[in-house]
Amino acid sequence: MMCPGRLVTIMAISICSCADPSGDASWDLGQPALLHPKAKTAAVYDESAVVEFDVGFDDRNWKAFQDAWKPKKDTSTWFHCSFQFAGVRFLDAACRHKGNPGDADVEKKPQIIVRFDKWVDSGRFFGLRRIDLEALPSFAAPIRDRVAMWALRLGGLTAPRANHAWVTVNGQPLGLYQNIEVVDREFLEQRFDPPIGNLYEKTDGSWSLQTNGDTGDYAAVFALEDTLESWKHRGAGSSTPFLEKVATLVDVPQVLLESAAEMVWPVWDNFSNGGWNFYLYQPAAAKPMVVLPWDFDEVASSTAPFDANPWDFVGHMTGDLQPGLGYDLRNLLFERDDWKQEYADALVVVRDGYYAAARQRTQRVCQQIRPYVEMDPNSYGTLQDFDAGCKDLEDRITARIEFLKSAL
C-alpha cells in the first residue's frame, strides 16, 4: 500500500508510516512508564502511525484458516503462518481466530491472534510472544479499545498499549484492525520489578495461570473468592474481619481506582461489572494482587449507556450471568466509609481528568485512521457511518460527564 505519510527509521529499518496529520507530539501522552522498556516493542505499538502487518499463508493453510472461520468460528485450532512488520518476516508463526464464535456470520474480516512461541518456546518477534488483531463488527468506528486504554494509562493504571494496523494477507488487504498489546509475561517484564509473580485469568468459570504454570499456585485468588463468599453469607455479622483479610489480598487503592475508571466510561462485561474481562496479578508471594484491565471494546455504547449508575452498574451480568468477583469485591470495600469515599473521589478525578481528555483523543485517532477506513475493503459501514461512529463516542463521553456531574 502506498502510504501518504512519512518515512520513520526504527532499528535502522526504514518503514512507511502514516503520522498524525497535526504533527502534535502529544501522541506520546498516555504511553506507559515502563520500568524495563523493550525498544523493539515500542515500534509495534507506535500510536503516531498506522503500522503495517502482513500475514502469510501457503495455499493449504489459508484455505484451512478460512474454513475454520465460517459458518462457525473455531478459536482453538492454530495454523502455520508467517508475519511481517518493518521489513522483517517471522517465518514460523501460528495463527488462530479470536472473538465470539457466533459473530462469524457478520464478520467481514477475521479477528486474529498471531503467536510466535507456539512451535518453538523461545520464539519472539520484536520482543513479543503474540499479536492481537481485533476488528469488532459492532462498530463502524473501530476506536473504543484504543481510546479507553489510552485514557487508563494516562491515569496511571497498568493498561495495554493499542494502536491501529493495516493488515494484509499475502499482500492482499484485509483492512484496518486495532492492534492491542497482549497481557502476558512480556507485558509484565516491562512494568513490574521483578516480574516473577502469578498472572491469573478466569475464563469459563475457572482460573488459569498465564505465568508460572509449573510452579505457581492459586492460593491468592482462591482466598479472595472464599473471603467474598463468606462475607456475602455472614448474616448479621460484622464486615471488619473480611475487610481486614481482603486488604492483605488486594491492593485496595489500585482496585478502587481501576473500578472508578471502568465505571466512569462505563464498561459492560469487565471487572467492576462482575464480569470476566480482566487479569489479576500477584507480584510476589504474600504480596497483594492488582487488577489489569482487558477488552474495552464495548465501552460507552448502547450496552454501557451514559446514565449507568456508577455505584451499581452490572452491564449484561444479569439473569443467568450473576455478577462475580469484581462486583462483590467493590461492594465489600464500600463497607468502609473511607474506602467508599476514596472511590467517590476517584470517580470525580477520572471524570474531570483523563476521561474528559478522551474526547479530543477520539477526534485525533479518527482523523488518523479515516484514510484507511475509506480504502478498507472490509470496513463495517460507509465512511459516513465511520464519521457518525466517531461523533457517537464523543457525544457519549460528553453525556456521561454531564450525567456524572449531576449524579455525584
Summarize the structure.
The protein has 408 residues and is an alpha+beta fold. 34% of the residues lie in helices and 19% in strands.
Structure explained in plain terms:
- With 408 residues, this protein is of the alpha+beta class.
- It folds into two domains: 14-31 and 42-187, no CATH class; 195-352, no CATH class.
- 34% of the residues lie in helices and 19% in strands.
- The chain has a seven-stranded mixed β-barrel with strand order 3-4-5-6-7-9-8. Strands 11-10-12-13 form a four-stranded antiparallel β-sheet.
- Helix 3 runs antiparallel to helix 10 (354-375).
Describe the structure using short key phrases.
2 domains; disordered N terminus; globular
Mean of all residue-level pLDDT scores: 92
**Strand order within the widest beta sheet:** 3-4-5-6-7-9-8
Helix content range of the residues, please? 25-40%
β-sheet strand percentage? 15-25%
Structural class: alpha+beta
Q: How many whole angstroms does the radius of gyration measure?
A: 21 Å
By DSSP (H or I, 4+ residues per run), the number of helices equals 11
The total strand number stands at: 13
Largest sheet: 7 strands, mixed, barrel
| Topology as a string of helices (H) and strands (E) | EEHEHEEEEHEEHEEHHHEEHHHH
Molecular shape: globular
Number of discrete domains? 2
- Detail the poorly predicted runs: 1-23
**Termini Cα gap:** 49 Å
